[in-house]
Specification:
The structure holds two protein chains of two kinds.
Chain A lengths: L5 E3 L3 E8 L8 H16 L5 E4 L7 E6 L15 E5 L8 E4 L4 E2 L6 E2 H13 L26 H11 L19 E3 L18 E4 L5 E5 L2 E6 L2 E2 L5 E2 H4 L9 E4 L4 E6 L2 E6 L2 E2 L5 E2 H4 L9 E4 L6 E5 L2 E5 L13 E2 L12 E4 L5 E5 L2 E6 L4 E2 L8 E2 H4 L5
Parallel strand pairs in A: 2-3, 2-4, 4-6, 7-8
Antiparallel strand pairs in A: 1-9, 5-6, 10-11, 11-12, 12-13, 12-14, 15-16, 16-17, 17-18, 17-19, 20-21, 21-22, 22-23, 24-25, 25-26, 26-27, 26-28
Helix pairs in contact in A: 1-2
Chain B lengths: L10 H10 L13 H4 L2 H14 L10 H7 L3 E2 L25
Helix pairs in contact in B: 1-3
The chains are: A alpha+beta, B mainly alpha.
């Protein structure tokens, strides 16, 4: 799942259907009923409540519109885009394409209940999920008797609004103000462990361009220069079969992420483990020792490098043997890079970064030495990467 | 019947789709000329990201299955929100710290 970054601060939300569909077989009462059911999908697992209003300001305005309707994201008629919604910080409203043939309890047309339940996930602060079984997957699944949240959806909504309590403790606020929207952006200067101890086990960028840091039993997702909302998370929750305290990881140009620990390695496509793993390093990476310190694809030549203690190995999967006899070579060849590093990363900006003991170095590929920048390297990763003060 | 928006063998329509749903938001406009993008190789990375997100075989090819998936009815919100929020958001940035 993915959290957009904003959420409602109150749990008693109001909504209004300001423009009903102009065609199709559904009456206004039908639409009211289906919209209510769609919102109930989210109340089943949280303390959120939704109250329909017929007039006045509401949290979530719902309307059926066609073509260009004033928000710069026009609808396209039947099929294609069915609807869209705005995250809490942008108002939370939901728009539905009035040119769709909206239906209820039928395999014909486009099922309003399922579409609306998905859109209201956005209104509450959720982005799309790459879990195909999740309600927040972006593609329309067709008529389902009773749309419901799967585990991925439940984790997402409860990350924002907490679990459903046994009694209704929610208090209601009648006025809407900007104070009702907040960013569920943890104050990174005070909260997460990387601010106290910025040493890491591994860092890599997955196929979907998400950059992850692994430390102990947890992992973090990085955004810009801090940690993404909702993190850290337990490795065991999201990376099926992967142990804690990994050694190193990298993503190869085939889109696969290779994660190493001890004598074994695992292979993932984003967070989905490929079958048949783990495998021995000796089988898949002939010539590479166990328990490596770091693994990365060097931006200079696109080949895979492994670092261990004071040595490094170059692995070329297209050559036989993949590691030449001239390896290992001393890390001191990488001018300015220390021995026993924690991990290294070719970042999305094209530079290669090396991490050790909470510090990092940026490498100048052309000069083949640590970048001569101001401030100089090493720099503290806690400030420059993890959003700490 | 709905008109398919992404056509077989049409890299342009595929690129429009990938742009619309946020897969190309990280594109470095200084280093990618449009003619480079409009090739199978130019879009390969973005097609792979879409295929991975959609739970498909990750080939990087605009094959018929990929086109079919791109023409599936769907939500209009981007799949990839990118690393930055819109300029008029209320998110606080630490301006003294430049991006990596």
């Amino acid at each position: 799942f993915a959290l957009q970054g904003s959420r409602w601060k109150v749990k008693d939300l109001t909504y209004r259907i300001s423009k009903y569909p102009t065609s199709g077989q559904m009456t206004k009462q039908d639409v009211d009923g289906e919209i209510k059911k769609a919102l109930d999908v989210w109340t089943d697992h949280t303390d959120l409540t939704f109250t329909q209003k017929r007039s006045g300001r509401v949290h979530i305005d719902i309307s059926f519109l066609e073509g260009e309707h004033g928000d710069g994201d026009p609808f396209d008629g039947s099929g294609g885009t069915l609807a869209h919604a705005f995250f809490p910080v942008f108002g939370g409203d939901a728009h539905f394409d009035d040119k769709e043939f909206w239906t209820m309890e039928s395999f014909r047309g486009t099922n309003l209940l399922q579409t609306a339940a998905h859109e209201f996930g956005h209104s509450l602060g959720l982005s799309h999920s790459d879990d195909n079984d999740a309600l927040m997957a972006p593609f329309y699944r067709g008529f389902e008797v009773k749309p419901s949240l799967n585990d991925d959806d439940i984790k997402a909504i409860q990350a924002l609004y907490g679990v459903k309590s046994s009694s209704n403790l929610a208090s209601s606020l009648n006025e809407i103000s900007s104070n009702e929207i907040e960013f569920d952006r943890r104050d990174s200067e005070t909260n997460h462990i990387l601010c106290n101890d910025a040493r890491i086990d591994a860092i890599f960028t997955a196929l979907d361009n998400s950059t992850y840091v692994f430390k102990g039993q947890e992992y973090f997702k990085l955004v810009d220069d801090s940690i993404a909302d909702g993190y850290p998370r337990k490795i065991s929750s999201d990376w099926s079969g992967l142990p804690s305290n990994i050694d190193a990881a990298f993503t190869w140009k085939n889109g696969k992420t290779y994660i190493f620990k001890g004598s074994q390695y695992w292979r993932y496509t984003n967070k989905n483990k490929d079958s048949g793993y783990p495998k021995p390093i000796s089988k898949g990476f002939d010539g590479i020792p166990n328990s490596v310190d770091a693994a990365f694809v060097w931006s200079g030549n696109g080949l895979i490098y492994f670092f261990k203690n004071g040595d490094y190995y170059r692995f070329n999967p297209e050559e036989r043997p993949p590691v030449k006899e001239t390896y290992p070579k001393p890390i001191s060849n990488w001018e300015g890079i220390p021995d026993n590093i924690d991990d290294a990363l070719k970042y999305t900006n094209g530079f290669t970064y090396f991490f050790k003991d909470g510090n990092y170095w940026r490498f100048d590929d052309k000069a083949f030495k640590v970048d001569q920048a101001n401030p100089a390297f090493p720099r503290p990763a806690s400030f420059w990467w993890f959003g700490c003060s | 019947m709905p008109i398919p928006h992404v056509k077989e063998n049409s890299l342009t329509s595929a690129m429009m789709y990938l742009m619309k749903y946020g897969y190309m938001d990280d594109m470095d406009h200084h280093h990618h000329r449009s003619e480079n993008l409009l090739s199978q190789d130019g879009l390969k990375k973005y097609i792979m990201e879409f295929q991975a997100f959609a739970g498909m075989n990750v080939t990087g090819e605009l094959d018929s299955d990929t086109v079919k998936m791109m023409n599936m009815p769907r939500c209009g919100v981007k799949d990839k929100l990118g690393m930055k929020m819109d300029a008029d958001s209320h998110q606080v940035h630490h301006h003294s710290r430049s991006k990596r």
